[in-house]
Amino acid sequence: MEQLEQGHPLQVYYQESALIQDLILELYDVNVSEDFQKYFNIFNQLSTIEKRFKRKENQLFPYLEKHHWNGPSQGMWSFHDVLRDQIRLLNSHNETKDVKKITENLPYLLEGIKRLMLIEDQNLFPNAKRLLSKADWDEFYEGDKEIGWMLKEKPAPFPAREPKYIHPSEDVTERTQSFSLENTTHYDEGYMTPEQVNLLLKFLPIDITYVDENDKVIFYNRGEDRVFARSKGIIGREVRFCHPPKSVDMVLRILEKFKAGNKDTAEFWFNFKGQIIHIRYFAIRDKNLIYKGVIEMSQDITEIQKLEGQKRLLDWD
């Protein structure tokens, strides 16, 4: 493969590959029973491969899909999950320092990672280089930085001269999407039509009320099963008139602290008509940290509190 520019996302992947190979060799050489701490330190460093998995799944794979190559999103993601399971299993043995189980299971993880890297080198990365344009690669850095790398030092910005950061809400760059942008608004992390925004808010399994910086109720979502009753008459009403006298002082205190910048959240939970209700208040601030209001979120968590163990499979009839 031809020489890649400094900081190119693929170059970073190759730098990580070299690190992974070194860590694998060290894990093969270390005697777990004689120097558990050394093994444990190397294993923890190798476990940061999760960052590499996430960058591939959330950065590289979506761009490949835009170029109509969906294979990695299906097959390789499943491969990642197998390796994740092996890391979790080994971590459970690490907690008990079960040297026998560690010694038995570690080779499966290491050989699996080696197979994955072989597929990356022979198939994934060459095809990604062929399919993606320079403009595609130029968009990677901010997202990659958000997820992180395995390397001890943060890779150089790519392109080499880092552009002035533009918040997604202010980014007006035209990009080709796989869906229509007609009648949509560009939000921080995507595009939606007014109808889609309304549907999203309507079907959220939580009650939301938005009070602006002037303490006026300007919005509530209309769900099927609300915790507390709401009607159109509340719009434009001062929030202090929307609560019973016994709780209004507490609400006003929350607003006072939010406006002063002393607090950003407040939460409560209590029994209400046989349900356990969780209420949270969040101060809303703009990019200059100017107070813009508060969101009240209410949720019936009765069934959530009953959850135990895990449910990882679909049990539909």
Instruction: Determine the mean pLDDT.
Output: 89
- Overall shape: it is globular
pLDDT under 50 segments (min length 5)?
Answer: none
Q: Name the helix and strand elements from N-terminus to C-terminus, one letter apiece.
A: HHHHHHHEEHEEHEEE
Helix content: 40-55%
Across the major sheet, the strand order is 4-3-7-6-5
Total number of helices: 9
The number of E-state strands comes to: 7
Task: Give the class from helix and strand content and strand pairing.
Answer: alpha+beta
Biggest sheet layout? 5 strands, antiparallel
- Calculate the terminal CA-CA distance, rounded to whole Å: 51 Å
Radius of gyration: 25 Å
Query: Strand portion, in percent?
Result: 5-15%
Descriptive key words:
single chain; 317 residues; alpha+beta; 5-stranded antiparallel β-sheet; two-stranded antiparallel sheet; 9 helices; 7 strands
Walk me through the structure.
It is a single chain. By secondary structure, this protein is of the alpha+beta class. It has nine helices and seven strands.
In short:
By secondary structure, the chain is α+β, with helices and mostly antiparallel strands.
List the helices and strands and how they pair.
Elements lengths: L8 H21 L6 H12 L1 H18 L4 H26 L2 H33 L2 H5 L1 H8 L37 E3 L2 E3 L1 H10 L3 E6 L4 E4 L24 H16 L4 E8 L2 E11 L5 E10 L17
Antiparallel strand pairs: 1-2, 3-4, 3-7, 5-6, 6-7
